[in-house]
UniProtKB/TrEMBL annotation:
Keywords, in A-Z order: Cell membrane, Membrane, Transmembrane, Transmembrane helix, Transport
Keyword Cell membrane listed: yes
Domain named ABC transmembrane type-1: residues: 67-258
GO BP, sorted A to Z: transmembrane transport
Localization of this protein: Cell membrane
A GO CC term assigned to this protein in UniProt: plasma membrane
Membrane topology summary: Multi-pass membrane protein
Transmembrane segments: 66-90, 102-126, 138-157, 178-203, 239-258
Organism of this sequence: Dactylosporangium siamense
Name of the protein described by the UniProt record: Sugar ABC transporter permease
One Pfam family from the record: BPD_transp_1
Length: 273
């Protein structure tokens, strides 16, 4: 008994934090198994376990289509981000050129600009070329790089010893070959961390799809699909909770398998600045 009390006292803060994080998910899961009349009442335990709520989600909304759009958005945006941000981070971390520090300052400043500031001019630009209502305005800008990802990858690449790059150059490798053959294999944890950050952002993004795809339901993502359960006079919170659980499952599984690379990448990006 004394040993149990000592263990509880020693890890009380960790237990409290665990409860804080687990309780909302447990509440969401229990609500997803309630009837519509019981959801969000004073009773937190389902009187009737209604697993049919998950089937109702698929019958009342085209959830597979929303899921496909979300996967397209998240995967394409992540791929385009890596394609453009990795070379930019390499140039900032391992090359020496005029204006390098000024360019880094610009990137940091871009991280501080709220996206709402550029909403109107960007929307008008995409509207003028007839691409609103599609996923293109959400994906294509990633080919120009992402400020946060460039900064994160740059911090990780600084931890790679320059001797490896010098040895590759002595062997006749150019900068692109050095990047592909030497830097990329050593930077896998940092690349994985940046990719997961971008993937999770795109998966959970609501503002971007609402702005560009709200006029065309065929291109809605899961975030907009969840909002479709809300009507003017009534919200079916049990179905909203069930759809939210279904939305969470893929990213939870992804993080479970990639957590080692993610944690390692995030940890090492702060080693050297």
């Amino acid at each position: 008994m004394n040993r149990w009390l000592l263990w509880t006292a020693r890890y009380s803060l960790a237990i409290a934090l665990c409860v804080m994080f687990v309780a909302p998910v447990a509440f969401l899961l229990l609500t997803s198994l309630m009837t519509d009349s019981q959801a969000l009442t004073a009773s937190y335990w389902p009187h009737q376990w209604r697993f049919a709520n998950y089937a109702d989600v698929f019958s009342k909304t085209p959830l597979p289509r929303y899921l496909l759009n979300t996967v397209i958005y998240a995967v394409a945006a992540t791929g385009f981000m890596l394609l453009s941000s990795v070379p930019a981070a390499y140039a900032l971390a391992k090359l020496r050129w005029r204006g390098q520090n000024a360019y880094l300052v610009v990137i940091v400043c871009m991280m501080m600009i709220p996206p709402q500031v550029t909403t109107v001019p960007l929307y008008l630009m995409w509207a003028n070329v007839g691409l609103t209502g599609t996923l293109v305005p959400l994906v294509l800008p990633m080919l120009l790089g992402d400020a946060f990802s460039i900064f994160l990858l740059r911090q990780f690449l600084l931890t790679i010893p320059g001797e490896y790059l010098d040895a590759a150059r002595v062997d006749g490798c150019g900068e692109w070959r050095t990047l592909l053959r030497v830097v990329l294999p050593m930077a896998r944890p940092g690349i994985a961390a940046a990719a997961l950050f971008q993937f999770f952002y795109a998966w959970n993004d609501y503002y971007g799809p609402l702005l560009y795809t709200s006029e065309n339901e065929h291109n809605w993502t899961l975030s907009l699909g969840l909002a479709s359960f809300k009507t003017l006079h009534h919200v079916q919170w049990n179905l909203v909770s069930a759809a939210t659980i279904l939305t969470m499952v893929p990213v939870v599984v992804l993080f479970f398998f990639a957590q080692r690379a993610f944690v390692q990448g995030v940890t090492l990006t702060g080693v050297k600045g």
